[in-house]
Write a structure and sequence with these properties.
The chain is of the alpha+beta class and 236 residues long. It contains 7 helices and 6 strands; from the N terminus they run H-H-H-H-E-E-H-H-H-E-E-E-E. Strand 4 and strand 5 form a beta hairpin. Helix 4 crosses helix 5 and helix 6 runs antiparallel to helix 7. The longest helix has 31 residues.
Length: 236
């Protein structure tokens, strides 16, 4: 790998690595800009963290997409736009509304049966945002560590490559962990699908011509907390 070769050169001939300073600063600027743009694309993360019922619905969106894929249907992506509403997008004309409704209810039943992994997916926007933020933190960490050891550009480059390798190894796991902690919940006592409707536009978003969108409305009974803040039997 080219990075490995450059690391060896930077350690063996530090003077030859002085040219890396400006490329490294350029990479840092690009990563910082990418982080800002990705966070700009996912403003919903800020409010869903504070909305337990919506986090449950978000998990049901993921689970429904997973069930549709298991059925051999071309599920593309989805998004949650309210505490009871989510959308699943399928390639082409898509199946009937009854098929999507059955998939959503099956997803609910499987999560209630203990199959919690259905609610988490690497393709979630949470993972996308966390990926960008952690990559930015990698470069900040490398820079801080370089300053702590009073290092030069070659040391900064070596630390950056090592941190980047660690980030690559942990990126998917970090995204899934962020979903579990922040944007997805499986902590509900019961749920049911109210109705499913095929739509061309939802919440200001318009479906591409090659996709069919289905809006799914659910009722969720949030599990009571130990402090009694959420009463059993109250539907979101």
């Amino acid at each position: 790998m080219l990075a490995d070769v450059l690391v060896v050169v930077a350690l063996a001939v530090p003077a030859a690595a002085s040219y890396l300073r400006w490329p490294l600063l350029a990479v840092y600027a690009v990563v910082s800009f990418a982080v800002w743009k990705r966070l700009e694309r996912h403003p919903w993360i800020a409010w869903i963290i504070r909305a337990p019922a919506t986090r449950i619905t978000h998990g049901l969106e993921h689970a429904t997409l997973a069930v549709l894929e298991e059925m051999g249907l071309p599920a593309r992506h989805g998004f949650t736009h309210g505490r009871r509403h989510f959308v699943v997008a399928l390639e082409g004309n898509g199946p009937s509304e009854d098929v999507v409704r059955a998939a959503a209810q099956r997803a609910i039943d499987r999560i209630l049966a203990g199959e919690h992994g259905l609610a988490y997916t690497p393709g979630c926007g949470t993972s996308d945002a966390v990926s960008a933020v952690t990559l930015w933190l990698v470069y900040v960490t490398a820079a801080v560590c370089t300053l702590l050891v009073d290092g030069s550009t070659p040391i900064f480059f070596v630390l950056s490559v090592l941190a980047f390798r660690l980030w690559l190894a942990c990126d998917t796991a970090l995204g899934l962990l962020a979903q579990r902690l922040l944007t997805v919940s499986v902590d509900f006592a019961a749920a049911r699908v109210v109705h499913v409707t095929s739509r061309r536009s939802v919440a200001g978003h318009i479906a591409p011509v090659h996709e069919t969108w289905f809006e799914v409305v659910v009722e969720v009974e949030v599990r009571a907390t130990h402090g009694g803040l959420v009463a059993p039997g109250v539907l979101s």
